[in-house]
Amino acid sequence: MMSMMYQAYQNHMDLTSPWRTGAAAGLKYLNLVPQGVSDRLFRRLAASLELISRSSLTYARPAYGIDKILVGNQELEVTEEVTFATPFGSLLHFKKESAPEQPRLLLVAPMSGHFATLLRGTVKTLLQDHDVYITDWHNPRDIPLGHGRFGLEDYTDHLITFLDKIGPRAHMVAICQPSVSALAAAAVMSEDNHPARPATLTLMAGPIDTRIQPTKVNGFAKSKPINWFEKNLINYVPVQCKGAFRRVYPGFVQLTAFVSMNLERHIKQHIDLANHLAKGEKEKAEIIKSFYDEYFAVMDLPAEFYIETVRDVFQEHLLPQGKLMHRGRPVNPASIRRMGLMTVEGEKDDICSIGQTLAAQDLCTGVRAYRKVHHMQAGVGHYGVFSGRRWNNEIYPLLRDFVHVNS
Length: 407
Known about the structure:
Layout: H1 5-30, H2 39-53, E1 68-71, E2 74-85, E3 89-96, E4 104-108, H3 120-126, E5 131-137, H4 152-166, E6 171-175, H5 179-191, E7 200-204, H6 216-222, H7 226-233, E8 235-236, E9 247-249, H8 251-261, H9 263-279, H10 282-295, E10 301-302, H11 303-315, E11 325-326, E12 329-330, E13 340-346, H12 359-363, E14 372-377, H13 389-405
Parallel strand pairs: 4-5, 4-6, 6-7, 7-13, 13-14
Antiparallel strand pairs: 1-2, 2-3, 3-5, 8-9, 9-10, 11-12
């Protein structure tokens, strides 16, 4: 019965779509009313219509919207270029026109219910001093079943392939969840003496060893047997979608869980949005709207990837115990040599606590001490490790210098 929940949800959204379309159309015409004509009444009506038109999730990736970037004292145009693609993801290059030669860097985005555009701010900062590529993951609900499965090993394979396409001496920065796959890819490539193995590996707030100071998230992952997650959270993609009948962990289920953890805050935000719209406070309203445009753009997770991540990373801790396998061979972090290793953690991170990412330093015994860097950022939570003021002013300069010294 649970496996049909996604289909029921999609049917409901299709059924109520005319209401949202009608509200959007009404808002469009209402905005044509001259200012001064009963402003208070029309603004409140417009606010109501806008909230109705926005009362749905989107399954399409938002735009990155990075058109220009300041490099030194020169503003350069940025264009997006798909360097390589598979059915499950693209290697997206943020190409800068007339840019000086800079270290090539692969930013590994998490596959965790939101699109890689969640790292838009991270990309903007990195672009100042690096030639940036990103793992732009595709939504499984749009991938036909004939393209097969996508599990944890497939994720790691993608990183190896993407690094190969970028070429030798690139740098890899993994944010959160994919730190395990990034470390595995670096280990496999090092053991094979792959010419495109990364020059440096940076792991930021990643669950390398979740036995260390377990968080509530870690506790939940271990609180139930793996078959519970498969039975209660995995659904089939609705028949209306290109990926019909693919097994996924639906984005709307993930978002519901996130929202429920801070329900009062989200309700208040929407009340504030309605008030800002009614008062004509466009700038304040736009800040809230921009946040929720990204937050409500959700991506499903392939069932295999989700289940294997919960089991191998959060329940059985295979990597730190030396038991993680990739395509039938052990993943050996000690094989990583001639590579810089940086780990970054946040003091107040309640998703990936202090020590869980640092554990990579102990696993990578082949990396010389002078090539190892660890930074614990005071005063930031999980997202503050890779976004916001302290990321820009305190963490990023350390990462930039680490990459450039090892280039």
